[in-house]
Design brief:
Chains A, B: One of its GO terms (biological process) is terpenoid biosynthetic process. Chains A, B: This is Farnesyl diphosphate synthase. Chains A, B: Its cofactor is Mg(2+). Chains A, B: Belongs to the FPP/GGPP synthase family. Two copies of one chain form a homodimer. By secondary structure, chain A is mostly helical. Chain A has a single domain, classed as Farnesyl Diphosphate Synthase (Orthogonal Bundle), CATH 1.10.600.10. Chain A contains 15 helices and two strands. Chain A has a two-stranded antiparallel sheet. In chain A, a hairpin with a 2-residue loop joins strand 1 and strand 2. In chain A, helix 10 (204-231) packs antiparallel against helix 14 (258-275). Chain A starts with a helix and ends with a helix. At the A-B interface, helix 2, helix 4, helix 6, helix 7 and helix 8 of A face helix 2, helix 4, helix 6, helix 7 and helix 8 of B.
């Protein structure tokens, strides 16, 4: 698999994902239509779809059915979208621009944004329970458990809470890393494993390696985010740039400096590749995705 | 089973539930501790625990293991608590008093309340996937699907969205009923079925009757809520009384008048009993619960 292949694959995956999300989300014509409109607005037509790609790439390792992967990836992306909707609200980060569009509470209203986020979380779990994702229902329950843990107070939501508490404080590097392993990392790690679980039963050692890959890529994703937030302008980024710095939030660049942060991202990339060394060519999309995540420019 | 028995049973169930919720919720000593503190504050030490009682009573019909019922009831109560936390926020109902205590965003802050609600929803699904609730994992997946649907945009969250849209509007009685069947009714209906699914496999007809019971009780619960909101003061109610009237929200009492609303509640109670007529004495707690819900004074 060469880089040109990867670009084509990622475009195809993004297109397939957009169609799947459109089908998985309730239509605007179904009541309550304003809520459904807000849910669709929050999820569709935007984002890099990194997490869905990790689900699909994880699924290639276990020869998973793409139809199953589309559902798992859809659930992951709905959780990601709901977290952004709530994170952008005035009582959290108070952001008005996301993916180049007004944030959901600006486009609709705060109450609708709150409920759209809530309903997207419910929908994610509904999809994971309602569709056959594994030949073994017990494995599917395990997937839901793994996924819910990644979303909750000891995963993504917990990371956001630590992030809030950190404003104006001087975190140490290990504290910053812990926050991001929860806030961004948990869902990214879960994405890889969710994809892998959709296929043939995986051995514990395989799952451990994939989890280590996910942990490295999740952290690298955040380090690169901080670097881009420091270096880019809002137009390129599609969201308000330099915001973390202005809000006096600790970032990798503020704690380490720009050049060491870039070096750290490359080390994490090397670790991610190391974690995959026992896998054959079916893990190449995961390898290419790690490269993409670290070398992206927005 | 006589009424005295029922009082003892409901006290025992509430006590058991409080202990179970205390165990199921993450300890304050686990990071992020402020978030876990807010989650515990939002769920523990309060509420009538009507939904958990419906889970336990539903489980009696199918001879379900009380340990399983405690988990299912815990998940239902966490969803109920999260919906109250979000509903009380300034961008929704902007309420400062709940169960006789300051609401979560008042006691903590808005961002923490938002995240605590989000994390409670995740935890509910985590519990339902992580604990054995049925001998058949496929039935357990069905339970999660049923439950997620009751929480989402075509259940509780959807009902709240319709409620928001209804402020200052004149709804018809069928529109009001539709709103409440989603907003309050969906979770109450799911509670009965979740309990029943924890035991022996139920036949489709049995589940249909239980669902009809749940629908009647769910609606009756809301009608009685409106009656109490009209007749009580805040001290008795443990929340701000007369608020819906002041907010110009349509209620059963405002649309029907007080006496017809009381009569409607009694009709729904009769329908609930009718739905249970094919069940033996194991459904008596459900019968008594319906009586309690309609005849309660707060």
């Amino acid at each position: 698999m060469n880089p040109t292949d990867f670009q084509a694959w990622s475009r195809e995956t993004a297109t397939r994902m957009e169609a799947a999300l459109g089908d998985l989300l309730p239509s605007k014509s179904i009541a309550p239509s304003r809520l459904h409109d807000a849910m669709r607005y929050s999820v569709l037509d935007g984002g890099k779809r990194v997490r869905p790609m990790l689900v699909f790439a994880g699924g290639l390792v276990s020869d998973a059915d793409p139809a199953r992967l589309a559902v798992a990836a859809g659930a992951v992306e709905m959780i990601h979208a709901y977290s952004l909707v709530h994170d952008d609200m005035p009582c959290m980060d108070d952001d008005v621009l996301r993916r180049g569009k007004p944030t959901t509470h600006v486009e609709f209203d705060e109450a609708t944004a709150l409920l759209a986020g809530d309903a997207l979380q419910s929908l994610a779990f509904q999809l994971l329970a309602d569709n056959k994702l594994s030949d073994d229902p017990a494995i599917q329950l395990k997937m839901i458990q793994l996924f819910a843990t990644a979303c909750g107070s000891r995963g993504m939501a917990g990371g956001q809470a630590i992030d809030l508490d950190a404003v104006g404080k001087s975190l140490t590097l290990p504290e910053l890393e812990y926050m991001h392993i929860l806030k961004t990392g948990a869902l990214i790690r879960a994405s890889v494993l969710m994809g892998a679980h959709c296929g043939r039963p995986m051995q514990a050692a395989e799952l451990e390696h994939l989890d280590r890959y996910g942990k490295c890529v999740g952290l690298a994703f955040q380090v690169v985010d901080d670097v881009l937030d420091e270096e880019s302008d809002s137009t390129t980024l599609g969201k308000t740039a330099g915001k973390d710095r202005e809000a006096n939030k600790p970032t990798y660049t503020s704690l380490m400096g720009l050049a060491p942060a870039k070096k750290f991202a490359l080390e994490l990339l090397a670790d991610a590749h190391e974690a995959l060394k026992g896998f054959d060519a079916r893990a190449d999309r995961l390898r290419q995705l790690a490269d993409f995540i670290v070398h992206r420019d927005r």
